[in-house]
Amino acid sequence: MEPKTLSRLTRVLLYAVCALVALLIGGLHVSADLQQAFLLAYGVSDPGRSWAVMAFLTAMGAMALWILAELIGVLRSVDTDPFVERNVRAFFRMGLAAELAGVAFFIKSSFLFTFMTAVCGLVMVLSGLFALVLAQVFRRAVEYKQENDLTI
After folding, report:
1. Mean predicted confidence (pLDDT) in 26-33
2. Contact of 132 with 92, CB cutoff 8 Å
3. Which residues, 6 or more positions from 143, have their beta carbon under 8 angstroms from its beta carbon?
4. pTM of the predicted model, to two decimals?
5. pLDDT at residue 79 above 70?
6. How many CA atoms, within 13 angstroms, populate the side-chain half-sphere of residue 16?
7. Predicted pLDDT at 47
8. Is the pLDDT confidence value at 35 over 90?
9. In whole angstroms, what is the distance from residue 104 CA to residue 31 CA?
10. DSSP label at 67?
11. Which residues contact 38 (CB under 8 A, 6 or more apart)?
12. What pLDDT does 7 receive?
């Protein structure tokens, strides 16, 4: 598969995931049936605790949208020049966002444990570490590229 085709396909998939997350967040606040399904999946029957679960799900959905937007921004530069300072900052922001989300999942697990919440916390922490490492790799690549551009 051609690199440009793969880049476009990945971008389309990222847009589709963004749309799905946005629809789920919107549906969570518009549809009582969807809200009830999410609350039942979390085992929440107490209306006093439902607002906390709704706030958590909304915050994590917003965090996912932020990470996806950053990733789409990075992917836009793949066809031209990916080794730019903007991508370094984007990977760093994605890493911090994923780490914060991982911490939020683990905090939520201590109050209302579900196996998937713990798994999501672990995945987010690992993804955050991966993004932070990528930020450092891209930072070095930008430095090498700038040095190379100055010598030619």
Report:
1. 89
2. yes
3. none
4. 0.88
5. yes
6. 6
7. 74
8. no
9. 25
10. H
11. 28, 53, 57
12. 82
Place of tokens 């399904």: 37
What is the Cα–Cα distance from 27 to 29, expressed in whole angstroms?
5
pLDDT at 152 over 70: no
Q: Are residues 75 and 10 in contact, defined by beta-carbon separation less than 8 angstroms?
A: yes
**CA-wise closest residue to 94 among 59, 65, 55, 115:** 65
CA distance 117 to 23: 21
User: What DSSP assignment string belongs to 89-129?
Assistant: HHHHHHHHHHHHHHHHHHHHHHHS--HHHHHHHHHHHHHHH
Once rounded to an integer, what is the mean pLDDT over residues 103-129?
93
Three-point CA angle 89, 95, 100, nearest 5°: 125
Q: What angle do CA 52, 91, 101 make, to 5 degrees?
A: 15
Q: Which two tokens stand for residue 77?
A: 């530069």
Helices (H), the chain: 3-30, 32-41, 47-76, 85-111, 115-151
Place of tokens 């967040």: 25
CA 41-42-45 angle, to 5 degrees, is 95
Residue 102 to residue 129: CA distance in whole angstroms: 11
Are the C-beta atoms of 38 and 53 separated by less than 8 Å? yes
Token pair of 24 as six digits: 């789920």
